[in-house]
Amino acid sequence: MIEFNNLSFGYTSKKLLYKNLSLTINQGSIYGLFGKNGAGKSTLLKNMVGTLFPVEGSILINGMTPQKRQPSFLQTIYYIPEDVFVPSLTIKQYKNLFAPFYPEFNEDNFHTYLNDLEVSVDGKLNKLSFGQQKKFVIAFALACNTKVLLMDEPTNGLDIPSKTQFRKLIASVMFDDRIIFISTHQVRDLENMIDNVIIVDNGDLLLHASVASICNKLCFKTVAEIPLNAKILYEERALKGTAVVIENIYAEDSKLNLEQLFNGVTENPTITKQIFSSN
Amino acid sequence: MVLQKILPLQNRYFHLTKPAMNNIFELKRFGLLLKKTVMERPVQLFGLCGLILAATLAIYSALLHFTNWNLAQNLSFVWCFAGGGCFLASIVFGYFGTNASGSAYLTLPASTFEKWLCGVLIVGVAFPGLFLVFFRLMDASFVMAYHNGLDKNSPAYKVMYKAVQVYTFDNAFVKDSIIIYANFVGAMMVGSLYFNKVSAIKTAMVYSGGLTIIYFLNLFLANAAFRNVDIAFPFNSIMIKVGNGTGILELPSNVSNIVHIAILYIIPTVLWITAYIRLREKEI
Hints:
The complex is a heterodimer. By secondary structure, chain A is α/β, with parallel strands linked by helices. Helices cover 30% and strands 27% of the residues of chain A. In chain A, the strands form three sheets. A six-stranded mixed beta sheet of chain A has the order 5-6-7-3-8-9, sandwiched between helices. Chain A has a three-stranded antiparallel beta sheet with strand order 2-1-4, with no helix packed on it. Chain B has a domain at 24-196. Chain B has helices spanning 2-17, 27-40, 42-66, 69-92, 99-106, 112-149, 157-163, 172-194, 199-225, 253-281; strands at residues 229-231, 237-242, 245-250. The N and C termini of chain B lie far apart (54 Å). Classes of the chains: A alpha/beta, B mainly alpha.
């Protein structure tokens, strides 16, 4: 479990990016963290892995404090930054040097993931393309079998087949006591994959809800006429009418559209709070 | 059937009784870290060491050609030992040039102490050891060649033979070089943890600036206390012009001892420990 207790963080003490953020993230879920560029997504991830320290408040990950960067903590968490780093080593050399730090590392899985992601295994890693390097790091991170996996814009630099393969892999490595936390501004890449949504903007937590809860409270549909007396979170002119995200007062079934949800939540944070605070 | 029942219990037992991990130091983990540190950047580490040793040979040869044995031995030793050590110290923690490599380094499951110790072993033990062995071999070869080249029948043979000897590492100049090394390398390690990019240059500029300020402050204070001050380099002595000559005004022995202890032990210790604290507090 990840607990944010009144977390405040800022790059300067005068201007805080996050102020008194409280949030609980449960095991066995894939979380999508969405936000615009500069919204503070990477900052939040860095606070979680302990490469940035909160100004006030605390973060606890499975009872441990990231800031201490203790080995017993670090071997249970893997963080993939947006720009990955690979040294001038072959895949075998990399595995031999880095895998022993992760007691749950599974070599068979590692090779399976490399194969699934079509990572070229010849030559030095630093000579691979950015996309190949990223896929290699994703394969290694998944094979480490850490309890917490944090990924910052993991689909950046991946081609379309690799994005599909990435989604399949993530779904296959999910188990009950694992937390996968994916930060991105490319909301469509995570569709049908995540089961919890967190949306941040300017350091504010605008939404934290499960996909089931979102579909329960909101209805995503295209209408000929915008219904009256409904709380409209988002509307967009489409070919066959108007695509809307409205409060689901008639318990309709609809498919979550992450992009529309994101636009609606960031444009109308007040309405979002009203909808999600009501039972 | 019985075995099938026992094995899970046994696994559970071992899981429950597994000793708690030492979060400060574990020999096995440290060994892995050291191996990873060396093997991850062999070109950078071994390449730089090779370059320093090659530079030592070139500087020694050049100085021998243009000056004398004593100067060649002393200057090549201090320049290459302290200078080379500074360059090496600037790269042992040089992971912070990019966000990705800095994150990879900080989030590697090893303790801060182990990461610091790894750097300290490289610049504090491995490099000095390598340098001293190389310098001894190089110097002994040159001295041997010189001795072999002397005319044994010459009346000046003994004098010329004795005039050039293998450089001893217990002389005062070497001791001073080690003090310079400990101070400069400590400063460079701290600097590389404060400046993420081109840390060697930035650190050198900061420390040069600091030393310049200290020098002029010392000169200002010396001028306030004495007349005709010539040189007042911190903190040993002040040179005062007396007529056509120059007199040396030394610190009282008790104060001089304090200054020496500070330069010998306190400042390097503070710098090397600061590197550890800075690494622990490092954010990227």
